[in-house]
Amino acid sequence: MASIYAPTRSLLFTHTTKCFFRPFKPSSSPFPLHCATKTTCSTLQQQPRRNNNNNNVIGILEERGLVESITSDALRSACLTPPPLKVYCGFDPTAESLHLGNLLGLIVLSWFRRCGHRAVALIGGATARVGDPSGKSLERPELDAETLERNQMGISNTIHEILGRAQNSNLVGPDSDSSVVILNNYNWWKEFSLLDFLKRVGRFARVGSMMAKESVRKRLESEQGMSYTEFTYQLLQGYDFLHLFQNEGVSVQIGGSDQWGNITAGTELIRKILQVEGAYGLTFPLLLKNDGTKFGKSEDGAIWLSPTFLSPYKFYQYFFSVPDDDVIRFLKILTFLDIEEIVSLEGEMGKPGYVPNTAQRRLAEEVTRFVHGEDGLAEALKATEALRPGSETKLDWKTIEGIAEDVPSCSLAYDAVLNLSLVDLSVSSGLFESKSAARRLLKQGGLYLNNNRVDSESKRIEAADIVDGKVLLLSAGKKNKVLVRIA
């Protein structure tokens, strides 16, 4: 359950497909050890594709670029054989909201649900106290109990909102269960003593295999090194899988490609301790920034999934601004649109008469609807239209506040604003550097008050101009805005 770094506007999606299976190899130890053996996808793809079967979730995910690795090719047939599988994805509560880096986990869980399987979200109330070293150059700061509790509640609410809202979307099969199951691994780890851990888990772990994991190896080779606490993380997550397999009937764990080592730690523990087969792992490629680091929440500008931290309007605008080079790929991995429709949109982009940002608009609508629902999408569309200079949509205080963090703002006293000329207000608010610049744009028809074009240089601010008695919105052209809060 990885913590992922914050996004920038420039996006890069990496997809390097690998497929794995683990054949049985005799061992002299009392518990057979299965070693990972790589099999190229070209070999696996010689098998007939079954995309015409609605339950073929692996085929659907592969077609959309959402499969990086699988632990066993037997997962393909298991997905098509009753009863439905239980699939889980873990989310460590290192912040109060999920973020864009977590979105693919929810998307993949939703695809399994759409194909008749059952989804489980695991909140890492215990593992968050340790810290996942995957992709990290430094050890994660320790969180206090109060912060962890608040984070767990926030993430649980976000998952309930998103997956609960989508529970009736194209679920198939007579045994389909659309309920949202959310568990917390602290509920079983809080009973563990160190001796219990060493006896029940540690004795089955091989230090050589643990050190060979990529996430561990990189940290051990770094100047900072790795603490014993972080070193044990893969065993904690591995035991989570064993616990869910044994007690909840969960047989598949999914995660980003950086979770491969943690996921295989779980499948190996299940084989060694329970001496059974039937546990599978699947990873999907990570969404990366152009510098190769992961999306997340440790820098300014994180794309949060909770509307408390990022308004549906800003969320919508983020995806509306995706470059043409990325939009088709994002439509495939972040939406549930039919591939045929996405291919059609791609074809339209190359034709004369294509309206710019048509594909981006569809992407923004679909992702916003999935994360924020129909009401959130309606709010985003209303704000988008209302905040367009020249729009006839009436502004309200809530809509204006939706862009407050994205535009410069200032606070002025009511008496200082009332009866002040618009030209003077444009300068004192910082929209223009000089009155002459304000007058020049006004004469050109580019100065707006609350999205209404102002044609008269003598315009003064009236009480009716102050939206809900709280704010004014000044615009110079379509993009430059200043929010004036009335103190």
Automatic annotation (TrEMBL):
Keywords: Aminoacyl-tRNA synthetase, ATP-binding, Ligase, Mitochondrion, Nucleotide-binding, Protein biosynthesis, RNA-binding, Transit peptide
Any Pfam family the entry gives: SYY_C-terminal
EC number: 6.1.1.1
GO biological process: post-embryonic development; reproductive structure development; tyrosyl-tRNA aminoacylation
Domain of life: Eukaryota
Enzyme class: ligase
InterPro entries reported for this sequence: aa-tRNA-synth_I_CS (IPR001412), aa-tRNA-synth_Ic (IPR002305), Rossmann-like_a/b/a_fold (IPR014729), S4_RNA-bd (IPR002942), S4_RNA-bd_sf (IPR036986), SYY-like_C (IPR054608), Tyr-tRNA-ligase (IPR002307), Tyr-tRNA-ligase_bac-type (IPR024088)
Residue ranges constituting the RNA-binding S4 domain according to the UniProt record: 421-478
Cellular component annotations (GO), alphabetically ordered: chloroplast stroma; cytosol; mitochondrion
Molecular function via GO: ATP binding; RNA binding; tyrosine-tRNA ligase activity
Compartments it resides in: Mitochondrion
Catalytic activity: tRNA(Tyr) + L-tyrosine + ATP = L-tyrosyl-tRNA(Tyr) + AMP + diphosphate + H(+)
NCBIfam families recorded: tyrS
HAMAP family in the record: Tyr_tRNA_synth_type1
UniProt family annotation: Belongs to the class-I aminoacyl-tRNA synthetase family.
Function noted in UniProt: Catalyzes the attachment of tyrosine to tRNA(Tyr) in a two-step reaction: tyrosine is first activated by ATP to form Tyr-AMP and then transferred to the acceptor end of tRNA(Tyr).
Protein name: Tyrosine--tRNA ligase
